[in-house]
Design a protein that fits this description.
Length: 309
């Protein structure tokens, strides 16, 4: 179906057609000459038809000209393989959950800061490379698991600054189970970020929960921070492997573009795992209707020139 970019231009057809009819009404001599011409070369019924068509052709020419001025187009649907740049165009938005370990060991020193501070700065840099209007839920865990923030990424940074550690125990498995159940209800492309030193010492077995996540369409991204006491990178790496997710070691030695790469890759994989292998989008094709209507207009103009008088 042909649509037009500027429909208000179509209003021009009304005064132009009225002007044409007025001119035709005043041009009796031209009308009679055209009538005699058709009567002389065609039989009477056909001559009348051609005479009517001749009059209509002028109106059709005006209508075609106005339509072309209004920029006609047809909507074309295309399906392509999904790439990261397509994600911004999709109506279905990703869902981010950040699990932050606020146990006592996360307050231990690491590379000039605390483990918690270092990890949160890393997470913030990743968030800066995501769509700021997307939703993120920040969940804090120690012995208990609780939602700390639920809103857009753009408004999350001030809340991240308020996070502090020093609490007893680290229930990594409970936190993963909480996030898993929360995400399942949403039925959206989902990414869970887990920030911890790996000092698991309370609650459900995180490997068992990771196995559940691995059998779902959820993307788990595990960040290990810290060395020494209560630091268990091996556990977090195993959680990542079992969940078929990603593992990153937070240090100062990582390249600056790592934050953008993590955001892009994990978000993209979340869509792929959720069944978005291809994407359908629409585009406006101006050339095809413009060419077709232009050719029709040319035919009517030529006919009018040859027979219109």
């Amino acid at each position: 179906m042909i649509e037009v970019e500027h429909p208000y231009v179509m209003v021009l057809a009304i005064p132009l057609i009225l002007i044409l009819l007025f001119i035709e009404f005043k041009s009796k001599e031209n009308y009679n000459r055209l009538k005699l011409y058709f009567m002389s070369i065609y039989k009477k019924p056909l001559a009348k038809v051609l005479l009517i068509l001749s009059k209509l052709s002028k109106i059709i020419i005006i209508i075609l000209l106005v339509i072309l001025l209004a920029q006609p187009y047809i909507t074309v649907k295309k399906e392509t393989v999904l790439n990261y740049d397509d994600i911004a165009k999709l109506k279905t938005r990703p869902y981010y959950v950040i699990l932050v370990d606020v146990s006592k060991s996360m307050n231990y020193g690491f590379e000039g800061a605390t483990r918690l501070k270092k990890g949160l700065e890393f997470i913030k840099k990743i968030l800066l490379n995501l769509n700021q209007s997307d939703v993120v839920i920040i969940i804090l865990f120690s012995r208990d698991v609780r939602i700390f923030y639920n809103g857009t990424i753009a408004e999350a940074y001030d809340y991240i600054e308020q996070i502090s550690g020093g609490e007893r125990y680290s229930a990594i498995g409970d936190a993963l189970a909480f996030a898993y159940n929360l995400v399942k209800l949403r039925q959206l492309p989902s990414i869970i970020f887990l920030l911890s030193d790996g000092g698991f010492n309370y609650g459900s077995n995180p490997i068992e929960v990771a196995n559940m996540i691995g059998g779902s369409n959820i993307t788990l991204v595990v960040f290990h921070v810290g060395i020494g006491a209560s630091s268990n990178a091996a556990l977090l790496r195993e959680i990542s492997d079992v969940s078929k997710g990603y593992f990153f070691e937070i240090t100062d030695e990582l390249p600056e573009d790592i934050y953008e790469e993590i955001g892009k890759e994990t978000t993209f994989q979340a869509y792929i795992r959720s069944g978005f292998q291809t994407v359908c989008y629409t585009s406006k094709d101006y050339s095809t209707p413009g060419l077709v209507l232009g050719l029709i207009l040319l035919l009517f103009v030529m006919a009018e020139y040859l027979y219109g008088g």
